[in-house]
Amino acid sequence: MDIAVLGVDLGKNFCSVVGLDASGAVVVRRRVRRETLIALVAKLPPCVVGMEACCGSHHLGRLFAAHGHDVRLMSPEYVRPYVKAQKNDDRDAEGIAEAATRPTMRFVGLKSQDQLDMQTLHRSRDRLVGERTALINQLRSILLERGLVADARMQWAELNRRIAAFDTEFVRCAKENEDTRRLTTIPGIGVIVATALVAAIGRAKLFDRGRDLSAWLGVVPRQFTTGGKPKLLGISKRGNTYLRKQLIHGARAALPHIAERDTPLGRWAKALIGRAHHNVAVVAFANKLARIAWAVLRNGERFTETSPSYS
């Protein structure tokens, strides 16, 4: 079989596989177990292997890449238009193979095990923070119904301890990684944002995207042109919601202090606060932080407020 592109629709136990030749014609259709899939791909000559970015795709992608294959992971929403009518697993695999060959397709960077481990820590911490917030709101409403305005801190002391343990782990990881050490020199980017950025994007994807990083994070306002003038709307809800939230929190905390400094970035922030609503200024500063983070990692240097290139 002369397979140029292999589309794989991942399942819990069984996976559908469709192989295309150089002309795009289907030359193989097969339904195999995950273990059989690994052995099958290992025997094939180097080709393009397309998969949706879902559970297990990064693990399989690393195994396939080790055998010389060009692994291309894609967001399921970008694959959907290439799936023909009467959707089933075989047609999904065929659509994945076709989408992997499109020149305008956006691919998901293949993450290392360390990146996935760091993302797991962030997701676990975020879940605990959400549970703590829900518990605080519930207890507060119960007490208010009884005419009490009190703070029952003991009820979520254990959650605070567990969240603090995650924060300690992030600090340790940040000290061991040169990229996170550079990022934490940027005001508004602490260890949580720095470790989350490095875990989510990686250096290869960072360089591929260039200065589109802030758009990928969703901190760029949507806009349209009316009467020849651009009109800004709210920020997009697409992109990485967790990173966007953390960047905006960091920007909100750092913006007042930065605006007081007589530096290129401080003068920019002060002028921004003077002409825009506070929330708009915070999002604009988060956008600026994302671009500064790109420049710091791209140039392999620490942030300095006096540098005009970061203004």
Number of helical segments with 4 or more residues: 12
Radius of gyration: 24 Å
The level of helicity is 40-55%
Low-confidence stretches: none
* SSE order, one letter for each helix or strand: EEEHEHEHHEHHHHHEEHHH
- Give a short account of the largest sheet: 6 strands, mixed
Q: State the total count of DSSP E strands.
A: 8
The number of distinct structural domains comes to 3
Distance between the termini: 56 Å
Strand order of the largest sheet: 3-2-1-4-5-6
Structural class: alpha/beta
- Oligomeric category: single chain
- What sort of overall outline do the alpha carbons produce when their principal axes are compared? globular
Quote the average pLDDT: 85
Strand content: 5-15%
Description:
It is a single chain. It is built from 12 helices and 8 strands. It has helices at 34-43, 57-66, 76-79, 89-99, 113-144, 157-176, 178-183, 191-209, 213-217, 241-259, 264-275, 278-299, and strands spanning 5-9, 14-20, 26-33, 48-52, 70-74, 107-108, 221-226, 229-235. The strands form 2 sheets. Strands 3-2-1-4-5-6 form a 6-stranded mixed β-sheet. The protein has a two-stranded antiparallel sheet with strand order 7-8. Strand 2 (14-20) and strand 3 form a beta hairpin.
